[in-house]
Amino acid sequence: MKKAYIHTFGCKVNQYDSQVIRDSFRSKGYEFCPDFNEVDVVIVNSCTVTSEADRQCRQLIRKVLRKNKKAKVLVTGCYPVRSSREIKDISDRIEILPKTSSYNSGKEDKIGINKFEGRSRAFVKIQDGCSNFCSYCIVPFVRPKLWSRPEEEVVNEVKNLLKQGYREVVLTGVHLGNYEYGLVNILEKIIGLNDDFRIRLSSIDVGGVTDELLGLMKSNPAKICAHLHIPLQSGSNDILKKMKRTYNSEFYQKAVEKVYASLPDAGVTTDVMVGFPGETDKDFDLTYNLINRLKLTRLHVFRFSPRPGTLAAGFDNRVPENIIKERSNKLKALDKKLQETFWRRFIGKSRLVVMEGKSKTAITDNYIRIFLDSDIKAKSGIFKVEIFERMGKPWGKLSEVNEPVLNQ
Ligand code: SF4
Question: What is the CATH number of the domain that holds 187?
């Protein structure tokens, strides 16, 4: 049997695509191994969202070429779409593997997975592509045009994953709110499945946070996780405009307030960018203060990275590196404070969790990562834990009221 290895960089959509690639190689007689030194084919599913992502991809490719002199190295994902030359220049042993989808045709090959290897929570891609062209973002250039998977295909895939034992399914896409057949509609169909499981939405643009969606989440707390990841990027309207985002800070604020009004215990996480060209101290303060005021529960902080071909790559007024670093550190400290304030609210209370792989941590419905007491280390499915504090971290012990926990 031929042997293969795959490494995935980047987002949940890429993680999903890697599973599709694994399945496709298996059907051609390959077996996957955890060590790239021993295989015939190494697949690198790349990301090009920042120059740092590019650097990490090149670094891994070089390492593979150095350590495994015989393997064929196939590079796929977003980086070769942006620049196959940069990849091919590394070595003539590299081949570019076209993505699982046909680029920019607006159509995707019929795809699907039955399992999600190496994870206890399965991702299901329901949508791909973006046509917004935010000024800093490379995504519209490297992923297909807007594309949505038919409802029936999505529901069947979820059914198959539930049969395999997955208890949390994360719906992913570049723009879930743009799911062609209606996000609320597909959620209703999925939660109608008669099984013990829960759904989480991966990331949703602020325009997708509708009353209808919040109403569905509120009336189905056991089936839809009380967690929304709503990218903010900046709290300054001047910067949002230059970024070509489609909302302003007031709109964002109202949306988050609506989430908390409907789902008071919800986790609301976000992406935020520092150092966009022209970002002043005042702009940064607006971002910092908005996040702090809204009590967002976790931040992913990104530094501006000029992506060749995007509008913002040509913008003047670059923010000096030392200031970008300082702002990034301030937001990371804020993130730490917000996360801690959030989980401490739940000390002595119970939440539903699923384990994360074979690790000693679990994720609550409202997206708190907790450490597990020894008696529940190997538990499967969804279970209820009581949260307590140990050495400044959130821990969980089995709640007195235990399974069955759904539909209570
Ligand atoms: S940041 Fe803008 S362009 Fe990039 S994926 Fe999101 S909406 Fe699309």
Answer: 3.30.750.210
Q: Do 270 and 372 fall within a single domain?
A: no
**131 Cα–ligand 1 center, Å:** 8
Domain total of the chain: 4
Ligand 1 centre and the CA of 130: distance in Å?
6
The whole-number pLDDT of residue 116 equals 72
389: phi then psi, degrees, rounded to nearest 5? -105, 135
pLDDT of 52: 92
- Ordered mean pLDDT values, 10 residues apiece, the chain (408 residues): 93 86 89 92 94 95 95 93 91 84 42 70 90 93 86 93 91 91 97 93 95 97 97 98 98 98 98 98 98 98 95 96 98 98 97 83 95 72 92 87 41
| 405, part of any domain | no
Protein residue with least CA distance to atom 7, ligand 1: 132
Pocket of ligand 1 (CB under 6 A): 130, 132-134, 137, 139-140, 174
Q: Write out the E strands in 178-319.
A: 198-201, 227-229, 267-274, 298-303
Residue 218 CB coordination number (10 Å): 14
What is the model's pTM? 0.89
Query: Is the residue at 407 inside a domain?
Result: no
Q: Which atom of ligand 1 is nearest to the CA of 137?
A: 4
| 3 state DSSP class of 5 | strand
Among the atoms of ligand 1, which is closest to the Cα of residue 243?
A: 2
- Atom number in ligand 1 closest to CA 174: 5
Q: How much of the chain is helix, strand and coil, in % rounded to 5?
A: 40, 20, 40
Residue 324 sits in a domain of what CATH number? 3.30.750.200
Whole-number Å distance, alpha carbon 245 to ligand 1 midpoint, is 8
Three-state DSSP at 245 gives coil
Q: Report if residue 406 sits inside a domain.
A: no
Q: Give the structural domain span for 64.
A: 2-96
